[in-house]
Amino acid sequence: MQISAAVPLMFLSVILCSLRAAAVQELRHPPNRIAVVGAGIGGTSAAYFLRQKFGNHVQIDIIEKGEVGGRLSTVEMEGNHYEAGGAVIHPLNLHMKTFVKELGLSPRHLDAGLLGIYNGEEFVFQQSEWLLINLFKMIWNYGLNFLRMYMWVEDMLDKFMRIYRYQTFDYSFSTTESLLHAMGGDDFTARLNVTIDETLQKSGFSQKFIDDIVAPAMRVNYGQDAKVNGFVGAVSLAGCDSGLWAVEGGNKLVCSGLLYASKAQLVKGTVTSIEEKVRPTKSGTTVSLYEVKYETDKGPILDMYDIVVIAAPLIKEINNIKFLNFDPPIEAVSKPYHQTVATFVHGRINASFFGCPKPCQFSVSEILTTNEPTLFINSIGSVSPVKPVTESVISKASDIKVWKVFSPEPLTDEHLRLLFESYHAVIVRNWMAYPKYTPPEKMPPIILHRGIYYLNSIEMAASAMEMSAISAKNIALLSYHRWYGKDGQIDQENLVERLKSEL
């Protein structure tokens, strides 16, 4: 049998291409220093993934003005700690599950108490301890909308899970839109431009179901109603799924664990400006670096970096970073963030406020609210400490608990007297927690400059711990591929079909 001369030539071409790619990587020196601005879940996971990609030789600095953990935080009340920021993790959040396993942390399974949804006058839906009663209520009030919602969310999650395969095979994306499109095609990107209300109406859900069930889920998770964009709305509905969990000791332990595992140096300071500088090298050539200026207790400090990752919202209320002398200019790119106030109260809830006349057997442990303008809270629910406590330190009076109240504004003394029959401890945490979602949404760029990346661009689509971790890995891959000229790993089309053929 005669072998065509084209066959060895083809193999020779493949070998030459491989050698050329290797030569390009060798000619481009590895980065010496990388700065990550922000030590929340985004910043610490970015440092972790950057270490995996670039190796141990690179110095990684995480510059943080506050505490490690960012919007993952706890409050202490009477000897116990409670989640004050990001509190729940979905069972399909694979990056968070991997972090917990590799860092030697323990998952804490959350007890699902009875739920009530209040409209300002009465409960429009109230769970029972009996499954058959709940099913009857659901069908009587909303037909098959609950079942259809389960299937709708499962379909969304099935598409969402594709990102983990892409990242396993080192594929990255240069924009948030291209990342979302790779997961769910035009369906995912289109959801950025319409509300979750419009999205669900188009899918055939009733307006009563959206008002009574969907809007309360938006209010508890994002402090906003069903006018948020369709993608963040879908993420919020997935966050109401069963099997939710948290990290024993507090979700912020993931951040401190990633900081340690990344071997990054924590620098306490507030970044004030970033400017590109050209510096000479020993070989007589020049190199472009980024001069990062930050304020510390000892005064202003300047440091030079090859790559900078902004892992914090670029809004003046949180980070007023100036980008100096860039052409074209780099400006603050994020939309305003939404204020959410978390108030922790140790006391006895006033059941009569929620329409339960005295004497009242108040069985619900979490109350969501519909979009009623007269209501001054978004939700109220009893919470458990981040570490298990013995029965001896739990109040014997079952109706005296620690309650977590979400509200758009700080609660007044009058509000507290309306909500509680009695209370003896109050702690307030005020958060600029997530963006104000007003579709159509315009995603900020991920690449702000040649070597400056904006991790929190993804929050304009949806803000969540796992979303930050996904963005962190994407930026680690993207910065690595762009540094070494591996364009074939960036913004590739039809990855679903490509990976099927590769496997």
TrEMBL record:
It comes from the Eukaryota. InterPro entries: FAD/NAD-bd_sf, Prenylcys_lyase, Prenylcysteine_Oxase1. It is an enzyme of class 1 (oxidoreductase). Its cofactor is FAD. Gene3D superfamilies: FAD/NAD(P)-binding domain. Coiled coil: none annotated. Its main location: other. Prenylcysteine oxidase that cleaves the thioether bond of prenyl-L-cysteines, such as farnesylcysteine and geranylgeranylcysteine. Only active against free prenylcysteines and not prenylcysteine residues within prenylated proteins or peptides. Involved in the final step in the degradation of prenylated proteins, by degrading prenylcysteines after the protein has been degraded. This is Prenylcysteine oxidase 1. The lineage of its organism: Eukaryota, Metazoa, Chordata, Craniata, Vertebrata.
